[in-house]
């Protein structure tokens, strides 16, 4: 592995100044993904800027009922926070559904959003990959793609975004704050990830050298009644093959408000806006839930070995929304 | 039945591992952790081409990189001799004859070794090394339609047959004819392969992680044409082997480099390299045909298995062999075939043959029970053979029915509603299943040295390997009883080829083979001590060799047996399958140390969960190499997948073994995957004939009458 320099920074302006001048540098958060990628040669930074000491490790309640989550808050702290668990239970569940206790103690919120796909071709530098080496091709399309994208992919890349946390944050309209040498900025999480198109190597809309400083969750009363369900090929310590973050507000048997996002089906956490539109105002029953899932999945373009994900997501949406509706009726 | 020796209480009672404290405190050093002065580090470079020739190795630029000492490849490496028969009676896999020519027979073939002052420098240079290939089209297509498959014997005949199969099948009232598949599976021991080689006073000294130090010493000695007395291999602590830790590229590379550089060289495999260099279990395609009377009595049994091997070495995964010991029929045919592909050579992996073979055969028995509408245990009892179905030899002991009876009682089998899809717990469909298990019981020649020390303690020296099984502790208990002393007064030293020839830790034969040698030496030592001449300062040492005694064993069907039970929960909407509980009851000879024996059996059953639901290496047709060759991509059961597992045993001492041992290393995994698959069938009504039973397969199959 390539030798690299290491600097620890204590303030945000110092951090972004270091990266602004140095395209070969990377921010190091928990290192739970970056260090793996450095070992396998996918990432070869010349310098690491360790941001774990930055004063971004707080979770603050906003006066309007939302939350502001610092970028270096660990997954463990986020999942354990009483206000997260009370106001956005699906977020806490999503975090706890990911990785292992040791990894969650290290991994950070900012790093989680910027983690790379776990596509086996991307992770192996001896194989072609348009995301790693633009123009080299996508062997997953004709090869192993059982856990690849069915929504929003392209002929150039079918990789999925692996985050669980991001799925819940997407459902709850999270906004990402960042800092660059030129000043601060904000992006809704749904706009953070770029469409795949023919540029799968360009993953986010963040300006070069930007440091994610935090995530803001706007107030969302519906989120207090929410759930994250993750399906994977073993009971723990595996990435999702399909997941759902859902929130449901039901009154008198009618859906008043619904939030729905999918994981492991696209290059980004997938906000199911078509399904949400269909749910709003409709009867809270299995037929509605199935129709909502179908509406969202109508755009699915599966490959031969991942077509099961359509069935999986439909069943999962119906199961989770039915559970939430049942609980609302109690 | 009782074992023929008098027993004194250590054997049969639970003892914590004698080296346990050293292991949990980190005091126990593993192969890659032992420090050496002037140590250099080698890093292997593996082929990215799946077939062809090496056109050039561009070593020049790499030699200029920081710390790089040398680059070994086919143009620079010393010649070795791979035309020999090794200690186990087979020629070596030519894969260990490193860097001898420019041929590349598969992706992941070692093409160079870069040696540098530090491991990081070696790795960086190895990854920078440019190798040009002349690529040829490769063929890794493994399917039932291969016309180039052919029968291979391995350590048993490829084909056995008796009776008129077609006629007996035609007149059978009930017929099962089904194909089962198992995927490529990898050992993945916790500790990666690692070796340090150095020349010390004219002797080659190798510190390694292996399953037999005399075995590896013998192979290295022959490969490098050395005097046997000038090679020493040590391997005291080993973090798992499962069949993968014999002579491999890392030891050979380390010896080559240390010879050239005249300084110690260490080579450690990465997890990803292990997928290409450590061997693996071949995928199998198996067809089982059963013909039976309406009451389930077998008239015809055929088990055919196809596995793959490399183009350089013939290895067979003998999955069809399991029926030769398990079930009889008027017409009986078993056949193991292989096809040669551009892939690495597979090797033994825990319960070779029996693990995949029992999945197919015990699934087929379950299918037959359902068709005959009889209980799956009753079906097996009805088909208990009196003698070896193929050999006609008597069984040394066969307590399979007793295992089923005890297991059924404890599992609550009698309360089972045989109809599928009847039990539910929320979103989960519940089902139970059972399967039989067997594994050959054998012993290999070993030597041991026992010393009565002047202070009243004893030292045992034997080239045994404790690969995490608890063998060293078991041998301590056996020696203590044989010497009529307390275990605390016995030191057992293992893992050193200087202790003389000994059986490897493999084939469930290690502990039994070593125990035999220790028992014989202990008997003679006690006689010597009883003669009463006192103990001189250097102690009194007795050596034993069991070659003649083991050679004199009568021909019998010698096996361990077991009954596996599993309860599973299946969410048909998501395809998730979870094992809720397992019970295994085994008849596996005398149990030396119940504590570590339970660990062995539960470990095997846990691997059965992995085999049934998770494990599968994926090969990419285009590149010919693996995708996801690491523990994130290759799933083994996580702790959350492992429910309440109970393993226990019935009294079953082997009448022909001095201690009564049969061996417990592999039997725990045998039948476990079939019990789980049979339980999935019971839960959902769907028969899954391909492992692993993944969510996508469960979803595709749905529920009801279809088969997957």
Structural overview:
The complex is a heterodimer of chains A (330) and B (708). Chain A has helices spanning 12-20, 34-40, 75-80, 82-87, 89-96, 101-106, 109-114, 139-142, 165-171, 189-192, 273-279, 286-297, 308-329; strands spanning 5-8, 25-28, 47-50, 59-61, 67-70, 175-180, 183-188, 211-217, 226-231, 242-251, 254-263, 270-271. Chain A is of the alpha+beta class and 330 residues long. Chain A has a domain at 225-329: Enolase-like, domain 1, CATH 3.30.390.50. By secondary structure, chain B is an alpha+beta fold. Chain B folds into three domains: 20-29 and 444-551, Aldehyde oxidase/xanthine dehydrogenase, molybdopterin binding domain (Aldehyde Oxidoreductase, domain 4), CATH 3.30.365.10; 34-137 and 190-240 and 245-277, Alpha-Beta Complex (Aldehyde Oxidoreductase, domain 3), CATH 3.90.1170; 150-185 and 280-441 and 556-701, Aldehyde Oxidoreductase, domain 4 (2-Layer Sandwich). The radius of gyration of chain B is 26 Å and the shape is globular. Classes of the chains: A alpha+beta (330), B alpha+beta (708).
The H-and-E topology of chain A, N to C, reads as EHEHEEEHHHHHHHEEHEEEEEHHH
CATH-defined topology of the largest domain in chain B: Aldehyde Oxidoreductase, domain 4
Mean pLDDT rating of chain A: 97
Name of the top-level CATH class of the largest domain in chain B? Alpha Beta
Helix residue percentage of chain A: 25-40%
Q: Which range best describes the helical content of chain B: under 10%, 10-25%, 25-40%, 40-55%, 55-70% or over 70%? A: 25-40%
Strand content of chain A: 15-25%
Based on CA inertia axes, which overall geometry of chain A fits? globular
CATH architecture annotation of the largest domain in chain B = 2-Layer Sandwich
Largest sheet of chain A: 5 strands, antiparallel
> Looking across the biggest beta sheet of chain A, what order are the strands in?
4-5-8-6-7
Any descriptors?
heterodimer, A: 330 residues, alpha+beta, Enolase-like, domain 1, 4-stranded antiparallel sheet, 13 helices, 12 strands, 20% strand, globular, B: 708 residues, Aldehyde Oxidoreductase, domain 4, Aldehyde Oxidoreductase, domain 3, 3 domains, 6-stranded mixed sheet, 25% helix, disordered N terminus, oxidoreductase activity (chain B)
